[in-house]
Amino acid sequence: MKQLVLLILVLCVVGCVTTIPVRLTGVVRPQAALEKFGEAKISEDGYVFEDGLIAASWSFFGDSFTVRVTNKTTNPISVQWDNASFVDALGNAHRLVRGDVTIMNTALSQAPIAIPAGATSLERLFSPDGIFRLSGGPIIVLPYYTRKSPTKNIAVMIPFEIDGEKETYTFAFRVLDSNSKQQKQEQQ
User: Fold this and answer.
1) CA 36-38-39 angle, 5° bins
2) pLDDT tens digit sequence for 16-40
3) DSSP states along 84-117
4) Cys bridge to 60: 11, 22, 26, 150, which one at CB 3.0-4.6 A?
5) CA separation for the pair 173, 181 (Å, rounded)
6) Smallest Cα–Cα separation from 99: which of 131, 126, 59?
7) What is the distance between the alpha carbons of residues 118 and 46, in angstroms, rounded to a whole number?
8) Does the structure show a pLDDT above 80 at 110?
9) Dihedral (Cα; 101, 159, 79, 163), 10-degree rounding
10) Taking residues 112-138, what's their average pLDDT?
11) What strands, in cross-sheet order, belong to the sheet with 48-50?
């Protein structure tokens, strides 16, 4: 009975945060990336980043997010998932894992993803720190943000490798208040 009540409580919390809108506010990348791949652009809706190396579009859910990375170069790039991280609203860094990793394998090394020139990779990402299993019950993935979080800023750091050189991009996001005037103005 206690497990059922806990499961319902967790599902209510997760369900309450699935509609929180998130906007990409900036991307930090090395100076060398600016010189090699040009100016960066963020779409007006705040979900797409683009430069000469990649185009990255984001979708957010209560317990995870997806990123669609398109290689805009003429050479393959590699995404180094073992070195990727997520920074929560408390400022704590967490390991990121791809959605194809099972709960028992979240601590194992993740193979890099090679993206050929002009190709796209779509990955579901989550932090294994928010995963637990009720004894004998379902697997629960806790949300990456709640309305009670002290700040509204989160970030994702992803290292890309091209021609043997690593280019680490940090994508900064702001969680918008779902009732805010700012969000309504940005949607118009």
Assistant:
1) 150
2) 434 458 899 999 999 999 999 999 9
3) -EEE-TTS-EEE-EETTS-GGGTTS--PPEEE-T
4) 22
5) 18
6) 126
7) 23
8) yes
9) -160
10) 80
11) 41-42, 48-50, 54-60, 65-71, 120-126, 97-98
Poorest-confidence range of 41-50, 66-75, 131-140?
131-140
Please check whether residue 85 is in contact with residue 129, taking contact to mean a CB–CB distance below 8 angstroms. no
Count of other CB atoms within 10 angstroms of residue 86: 22
Reading phi first (left if > 0) and then psi (alpha if -120 to 50, else beta), residue 46 is in: left
d(C-alpha 160, C-alpha 95), whole Å: 16
pLDDT of 146: 59
Bridge partners (DSSP) of residue 97 are: 126
d(Cα 29, Cα 40) in Å, to the nearest integer?
10
Q: Which two tokens stand for residue 68?
A: 């669609």
End-to-end CA distance of the chain: 47
